[in-house]
Amino acid sequence: MEKHIRTRFSPEKVLKNSTNTVREFGMELLYMSILLASSLLLFFFLVHSVIPEQRNMIDQGAFLFLKPLISKDHTWYAQVVTFFGTGTFLIPSYVFIVFYLIRNNYKKYGMLVSATVISSLLLGWILKPLFHRARPPYPLVTGAGGYSFPSGHALGGFIFSGVLLYLVWNTCKNIYLKWCSSLCFLLFGLMIGLSRIYLHVHYATDVMGSLLLTLAWFSFICIVFRFIYKHEMHERELPEHASGPLPEDLGHYINKGLKTFSGRL
Q: Which domain holds residue 95?
């Protein structure tokens, strides 16, 4: 028994684990910093070089590409998709996610999600009147008001996708589930952005700006939280008076839900 304890907590093993943790911490900060810098550079290029043009090739090309697809049915589908970028869907979803994270001892992730959502919402409200870009003419739906850049629906969809991607990649152990869910989350955000362009309530560059803004802001929030909590960022808090193992990770429940859903088909 004593030999087992000495082996388990040997200085060599502790040093190796500490070295791996420091390396992981440094690599994550490096990746996030590169993502932050590149996203900001592209965002500033978009704002200063592309958007000021009255008829830029990106926006005109996107509208011309989608024009043959315009129909009554497609417009209805686009309205359904764009609903997932509204607060009616996102707010209850975030409440559920934060509640789940806190309930399952992912309190740091819960705070990160809350900080990201609230700050990105405020950021969108600040930037719209700052750029005061008019919306495209001839929208296919009514009710779209305010300024055009950046797209609020697309920003909400991209932030939601980014949050889910971050949580899955940091809690799920199944690599196949990580990639499959990542593809679904990416398509989710892109479809919301595409629906806004199709409905002629946003330019393609509005959606691109929302995507770049999401990448920059989310990476910035992650860097801040990583510096605050350092090596404890990805550790689950032990519940008080805990005697058993921690609850299953997020990936376990996603995998279980997918199996249940596929079994009913």
A: 76-236
Task: Report residues of the chain scoring pLDDT below 50.
Answer: 1-10, 12-21, 241-248, 261, 265
Integer CA distances (angstroms), 46 to 40, 134, 141, 197, 207, in order: 10, 16, 27, 17, 11
Q: Is residue 53 part of a domain?
A: no
Q: What is the pLDDT of residues 88-104, one digit of tens each?
A: 899 999 999 999 888 88
Q: How many domains does the chain have?
A: 1
Within a domain: residue 164? yes
SS3 231: helix
CA–CA gap between residue 215 and residue 40 (Å, rounded): 9
Cis peptide bond N-terminal to 11, omega within 30: no
Mean pLDDT of the chain: 78
Query: Is position 265 within any domain?
Result: no
Q: Is residue 221 part of a domain?
A: yes
Q: What is the pLDDT at residue 13?
A: 43
